[in-house]
Amino acid sequence: MNITEIQSTLQTYFDVMYECDMKKFDQVFHPSCSLFTAAGEDLMVKPCEQYRREMSTRTPPKSRAQSRDKERIIKIDFLSDEMALAQVRVHIHDNMLADNLNLVKVGPRWMVVAKIYHLLGLVS
Question: Model's pTM, two decimal places?
Answer without folding.
Answer: 0.94
